[in-house]
Design a protein that fits this description.
Blueprint (H helix, E strand, L loop, with lengths): L28 E5 L4 H11 L4 E5 L9 H14 L6 E5 L8 H12 L5 E4 L5 H18 L6 E6 L2 H5 L1 H5 L5 E6 L1 H8 L14 E3 L13 E3 L4 H13 L3 E3 L9 H14 L4 E3 L3 H9 L4 H14 L5 E4 L2 E4 H18 L3 H7 L3
Parallel strand pairs: 1-2, 1-10, 2-3, 3-4, 4-5, 5-6, 6-9
Antiparallel strand pairs: 7-8, 11-12
Helix pairs in contact: 2-3, 3-4, 9-10, 11-12, 12-13
Length: 350
């Protein structure tokens, strides 16, 4: 076991010192693109203007015979493009794949100064993060990087779910965790073939009225991912990192996508993946507090003064717990408004 005093020491001679606090940078949507697809690469600069995070994907959505082309394409994008305040992330191949070592070695040494976060799929425990942590330190030292690249884990296996707390606290590099519902469903042997979202068979039914058990009984579809997302959020908050909902696979069902994203937002997630441009605006809308909620939060904070005691506002009791809740909303609004002029206007932060 490492000493707590050594936790913030570099893991390789010449590597940059680890961060002591994960900076909150707006990341409402993590937009995936395939760097082996020339059409997607050509659109990347324009897409980057609309998103908080642009992610070059090297893993599942890239065919095996395109892995090297995707890696080379991402290197080219990193060297040739300046995305301004938009973050550049990548999802490397899984740690048990034949491509991941070349992914990490190439990307860190070639464009490590451009990469903000490396997303690691199918993380099963702290041991996976420890491996990546040490290797990144060695590569950063070789490349002469002045800042560490952060790490983001995807929760995609039952083992990862069981170990989510230790994963969240495995390294100072840990930036956040995303839910990977499709792989997690397969790992758990869940009987759904959907990528995220609910299932019509997962429901509750009202009690019967009278002797006829089939008449007048309403059903309500439930959220398959409520427990998982809530536990992931708790693990992330406990260790000062950021939780995210992952992909919603039905691109055409924008209504259900918005509902699933909002569930995650209300539970504490800061963003979600966007797999298609149509999901970008959904994520922007959902993971930005509504202007009326921001106005209410600021009003409560103002009327509570030093935050102690209790006041009645429009017939509702507000106390110190109310102020804490309202500060979450107001502070998020300020952080987003600093990046988004339209939101600044809507929030009155001009």
């Amino acid at each position: 076991m490492r000493s707590a005093k050594d936790f913030f020491a570099p893991l390789a001679v010449g590597a940059p010192p680890p961060v002591r606090e994960i900076p909150f940078t707006p990341s409402r949507m993590i937009h995936f693109f395939d760097p082996s697809n020339e059409k997607m690469v050509a659109k990347a600069p324009d897409i980057a203007k609309k998103v908080d995070v642009l992610l070059g994907n090297l893993e599942d959505a890239v065919r095996a015979d395109n892995k090297e082309a995707a890696r080379a394409g991402l290197v080219r994008v990193g060297k040739e493009s300046d995305f301004g305040t938009t973050q550049l992330w990548t999802r490397v191949n899984s740690l048990d794949s034949p491509w991941v070592l070349d992914d990490l070695t190439t990307l860190v040494t070639e464009i490590g100064d451009k990469l903000d976060v490396i997303m690691v799929p199918k993380v099963e425990g702290a041991q996976d993060i420890h491996y990546v942590d040490r290797l990144l330190a060695q590569l950063e030292a070789r490349a002469g990087l002045s800042r560490p690249i952060l790490v983001h884990a995807i929760l995609e296996t039952a083992s990862g779910m069981a170990n989510v707390e230790e994963i969240a606290g495995a390294s100072p590099r840990m930036q956040g965790i995303s839910l990977g519902p499709a792989d997690l469903a397969a790992s758990r042997r869940m009987k759904t073939t959907r990528v995220g979202g609910g299932h019509p068979g997962y429901l509750v039914r009202t009690d019967p009225v009278g002797e006829d058990l089939s008449e007048g009984r309403s059903t309500y579809q439930q959220d398959l991912w409520h427990y998982t997302v809530a536990r992931m959020v708790d693990a992330c908050v406990m260790h000062g990192i950021l939780p995210y909902y992952g992909p919603f696979g039905d691109i055409q069902d924008t209504v259900a996508c918005e509902d699933q994203f909002r569930n995650a937002f209300l539970l504490g997630c800061v963003g979600a993946w966007s797999l298609h441009p149509v999901q970008i605006e959904i994520a922007r809308k959902v993971f930005s507090p509504a202007p009326e909620d921001v106005r209410w939060a600021k009003r409560v904070i103002a009327e509570m003064g030093d935050g102690t005691g209790a006041v009645m506002i429009d017939g509702k009791m507000q106390d110190d717990a109310s102020v804490k809740q309202c500060r979450v909303v107001a502070e998020l609004a300020d952080q987003l408004a600093a990046r988004d002029p339209e939101l600044a206007k809507e929030y009155g932060n001009e």
